[in-house]
Predict the 3D structure of the following.
Amino acid sequence: MNFAFSEEQEELRGAVRRFLADKSPEAEVRRLMATEEGYDPAVWRQMADQLGLQGLAVPERHGGAGFGFVELAVVLEEMGAALLCAPFLSSVVLAANALVTSGDEAAMDRWLPGIASGETVAALAVTEDGGRWDLDAAGAVTTTARRTGDGWVLDGHKSFVLDGHVAGLLLVVARSDDGLGLFAVDGDAPGLARRALPTMDQTRKQARLELAGVPAAAVGEPGGAGPGLARTLDLAAVALAAEQVGGAQRCLDRAVAYAKERIQFGRPIGSFQAIKHKCADLLLEVESARSAAYYGAWAAADGSDELPVVASLAKAYCSEAYFHAAAENIQIHGGIGFTWEHDAHLYFKRAKSSELLFGDPAYHRELLAQRIGL
């Protein structure tokens, strides 16, 4: 196992970092937060046309570049540092992997090329009002799917769907007489109502879907979606962990820079023991989180049997490391860090929403214990 990145991977990181420095400065993040869509379609197209980011990890036979999860983690780490407002996690990580893990070649042929080119924004609708990510839990999935003469129709609702209000393709988890299934729904389908939800973290939009007799197409074997969805959520947890590391590192960098320039009692506040210790503790946490996230990316790229265990480990640890880094960044900045004008609170809100996304640290520790047989 080698955690050193190749020259090609470092070039990818540099290209993405330069692109995001230009396209996702703080002023643009704040502008997009206030829009209904939550992202800039022009920048989304540039991400695809100039860098090919949407198709980076999509198999070549389905219109992608065919790179692995390590490259995807590199990109997500940079996006987390820049607080990029875009449907990347929802479309490229969740929806694309849900299609791939379904094993349905016809579905992959139909929808993956559009996702890879950036033409299709897709979303995976898993949770309902209870916000449960454990699909086997009672009441976690109450949305129903029933057969009709020429396909399926869905009834029910979904909540907290990442970018569900703008997605042209919705992949909806629902139950039929066969069991748990995955169903594709057009964003303009009759009987579908969707609206953006008010959320604490406006850098990542969420939506509620109402489905009343909505026509749908089955993806994969009806009733057999459980294993594929479980792997999709593990991959999503690793991807989010990488993004959290990027955000945590940016918080640490901002805290250290401020500690060097802020003068109190005639000296930089970073020279005081209390601030030095805070920064040192954060460095240890961020580096440990990075190791966990990179290990998860390697396990995903290598197809390792360790992925379920490592995914929960990485998600739990990186969630807490990011939240702590964001909170300490505010504390080190003092009063200015609490103001709306300062970007420290943007990272704090993203850290909190990411901590809960795909299950909080307590949920993943319990999942980790189950997966190692405790």
Summary: The chain has three domains: 7-120, 123-221, 227-371. Residues 7-120 form a domain with the Butyryl-Coa Dehydrogenase, subunit A; domain 1 fold (CATH 1.10.540.10). The chain is about 50% helix and 15% strand.
